Amino acid sequence: MLIVGIAGGTGSGKTTVVTKLMEALPGGELQVMPQDSYYRDNSHIPLEERQKINFDHPSSVEFDLLIRHLKQLRKGLPVEMPLYSYLTCVRSKETITVNPAKVVIVEGILVLADPGLREMLDIKVFVDADADDRLGRVIQRDIVERGRSVMKVLERYHDTVKPSHLQFIEPSKRYADIIIPGGGENQVGIEVLISIIEKHLRKKKINKNAGKPAG
Q1: Model confidence over 68-79: pLDDT tens digits?
Q2: Residue 142 neighbours by CB distance under 10 Å
Q3: Mean pLDDT value of segment 1-30
Q4: pTM of the model
Q5: Which H/E stretch holds residue 72?
Q6: Which CATH number among 3.40.50.720, 3.30.43.10, 3.40.50.300, 3.10.290.10 corresponds to the domain 2-185?
Q7: C-alpha dihedral, 83 to 88 to 89 to 90, nearest 10°
Q8: CA distance 99 to 74
Q9: 4 forms bridges with which residues in the sheet?
């Protein structure tokens, strides 16, 4: 199993990159595990307090559970991935069954910021984008998908998103094997990543076949 970590700032185009990878690779060979699914359950905190949580800080993510799930998948075992709601800031009682696959993509802003998770990754990718472009996408996404006002989005951006990006996310870029500037619009960068993944898959297939007795 090949584990690919795709990190980058909020609104950098990570989801677009993942979507293009899913379109390019054969069906059934790829599973996606969003870091967002592993945000800690905050049901014990009043809703008003939940909405003040800094989701761009590493402490907001249950990395231990994500790492444990990746280890189970590597052993060929399915896992029950949590479902997280940004509207309520709590985990759902339902889960999503994730089965082992040839390629598992772990996508999220802090994927390269946690040392334990980095050790699990075979390929580390950082999707880079201009800060103004990212802010524009964040405003659009948070209004449409998360029901926030423009003022609330801007307030959150300046209070938590931008400081956390500079403290945790941007520095994690130095751990990347591949940097894709321009986000999801960089078709050349995405094609390079696809070819590297395909090369790894061919290599694993050759090694697997080499171990089989001649018949």
Answers
A1: 999 999 999 999
A2: 22
A3: 90
A4: 0.87
A5: helix 63-74
A6: 3.40.50.300
A7: -50
A8: 10
A9: 105, 123
Residue count (the chain): 215
Is 3:47 a contact under the CB 8 Å cutoff? Answer: no
The residue ranges of every structural domain in the chain are 2-185
Q: How many CA atoms lie within 13 A of 168 on its CB side?
A: 23
Tokens linked to 178: 């591949």
Please classify residue 107 by burial: count the beta carbons closer than 10 Å to its beta carbon, then call 0-12 exposed, 13-18 middle and 19+ buried.
buried
Residue whose pair of structure tokens reads 């584990």 in the numeric block: 3
Alpha-carbon gap, residue 16 to 187, rounded angstroms:
11
d(CA 67, CA 133): 31
Question: How would residue 212 be classed by pLDDT, with cut points 50, 70 and 90?
Answer: low
Dist CA 82 CA 93 (whole Å): 8
